[in-house]
Amino acid sequence: MRYLLVSVILFLGITVTIHAQKIKGNQFKVVFYNTENLFDTIHDQNKNDNDFLPDSKVPWTSQRYNHKLQNIARVLIAIDSVNLPAVIGMAEVENIGVLNDLIGKTPLHKGNYQAILEEGSDPRGIDVALIFRKDVMHYVAHKAFAAAQSFNTRSILYVKLTDAKKDTFHIFVNHWKSREGGGNETETKRIENASSLKHLTDSILAHNTKANILIMGDFNDEPKDKSISEILGAGKPDQPITQAGLYNLMFLRFLNGEGTLYYKDWDLFDQIIVSGNLLINHKQGNGAVILPPYSTIFKQDWMLYKNKAGDMVPNRTASSKDYFGGYSDHLPVFVIVNY
Question: Which pTM was predicted?
Answer without folding.
Answer: 0.93
